[in-house]
Amino acid sequence: MSSRAINLVLLLSLTLLSVATEASFLIRKADILIYNDLNVGMDLTIHCKSKNDDLGVHVLAYRNHFEFKFRPHFWGNTLFFCKMQWNGGSHWFDIYEQNRDSRHCNRCLWNITPKGPCMFNSKTSQFDMCYPWNSGS
Question: How much is the pTM?
Answer without folding.
Answer: 0.78
